[in-house]
Amino acid sequence: MSVTVKWGRDRLAFALPPKDTPLSAIRQSLREYTQLHSFKLVHKGAVLKDDQAPISHYHIAAGSVLMLLPTADDVPVMPSSQESALLTTISTELATVRSSLVPELNQLLAAGISSQAPAKDYLRLGELLLQSLLRLDGLAPETGQARQQRKEAVKEIQALLDALDETIAARKAAGLQ
Q1: Which of 73, 97, 146, 149 is 20 to 30 Å from 115 by CA-CA measure?
Q2: Do 106 and 135 reside in the same domain of the chain?
Q3: Long-range contact set of residues 28-37: C-beta below 8 Å, sequence gap at least 24
Q4: Dihedrals φ, ψ of 81, to 5°?
Q5: Looking at residue 71, what DSSP letter applies?
Q6: Residues in domain BAG (predicted)?
Q7: What is the distance between the alpha carbons of residues 27 and 52, in angstroms, rounded to a whole number?
Q8: 163: part of which helix (H) or strand (E)?
């Protein structure tokens, strides 16, 4: 369940927090994403002013649409086309890893160190994960959402590689590799 926030031409989807969450929590998430310091939030034509009021006070529920309006003293910093391209590249790389490598990796890890899979299967997966990390490392987002998304993607792929390396080390210790 999510809430949509309209910001200029963008449509942002945020997870709906519990009903007793103060409006300030949504406002803070939007501040972090947009890098705006001051803005107005509008829901069903009303400006949301009391940050301490729970979101239920404003009847914000799943599917609600909020409008984010920067104030005159704050210029919006919408993602540039270069950042959008980086976001697409990062998402594509992570989706490729998840769809093509993770299922095979999960099979090998589930089988444990006693798997009958040849050592080359483990090494091939390790090499492919490492190549993915290197491709992400070649991207250089300076600021914004692309930098954060790249960081999270690297962390996820590195965790997969670490799990594989632990299994390989255990297999070597058991004399299976």
Answers
A1: 97
A2: yes
A3: 30/5, 30/68, 33/145, 34/7, 34/68, 34/76, 34/77, 35/77, 35/144, 36/68, 36/70, 36/74, 36/76, 36/77, 37/74
A4: -65, -35
A5: -
A6: 120-168
A7: 11
A8: helix 144-173
- pTM greater than 0.90: no
DSSP-derived pairing of the beta strands 39-43 and 46-47? antiparallel
Outline where DSSP puts E strands in 25-125: 39-43, 46-47, 65-70
- In tens, the pLDDT along 43-70 reads 998 899 999 999 989 898 888 899 988 8
What residue numbers bound the domain in which 120 lies? Answer: 81-173
Give 72-111 pLDDT, tens digit per residue: 665 545 456 777 888 888 989 999 999 999 999 998 888 7
Find the length of the chain. Answer: 177
Q: What's the pLDDT band for 140 if we cut at 50, 70, 90?
A: confident
Q: Which of 40, 20, 22 is nearest to 31 (CA)?
A: 40
